[in-house]
Amino acid sequence: MEIGNGPSEPSNRHGFALLPTLALLLLLAAITLALQSRSQTSLRLLSRLTTDLHDRAAQDALTDRLRGLVGDAMASPAPLPGRPRLDGTPFAMDWAGQSWQVRVQDVEGLVELYLAAPETLALLPADARAREAALAALPPGTRFPTLAMALARFGIDPTQAAGLVTQSGRTGTLRLSTLPEDLRPRAKVLRPGPREGEQITRVQLRFEKPGG
What is the pTM of this model? Predict the structure, then answer.
């Protein structure tokens, strides 16, 4: 590029010729950023999928290890050392270098959403009228496909009901001896029923990674 007092037309043409080049560079830069962003998103997705698969494998392995331990606990009338309690108390286990907390919960120690009497449902932040309205809209003998859907239709906050409810209980009567910790203070108004003397036959497992 020359600087002087001569004609400026060649200089103008050179400046105009640079514009497409600059535009192309900007386009390439935008494409590069988009590809980098997609690549980072793909890497995050792959990392999440890998973690999910690893956790699933861990839970399957821990479930196999728990079968005998839980069987012993279910057959015993009192808690056994080295065996999980059946009231949702965390039970520490390790797998592949990871620490896990497993909560083993007797199903009959949970509030049965469909069958619980109003005084039992009152242990939750729930509106019995909302439940009755939702049940009236269901064909007789049917239930919502998932627990999350049932909670939503019954107007119950899932964050306040987590680990406290079920929709697979046989009756609406609670077994007070296996209530989860969060229900125990509220259930003091209830009297022990026939469930207390029956053997536990079904439990639910919840897996948690401390700090995870």
Answer: 0.73
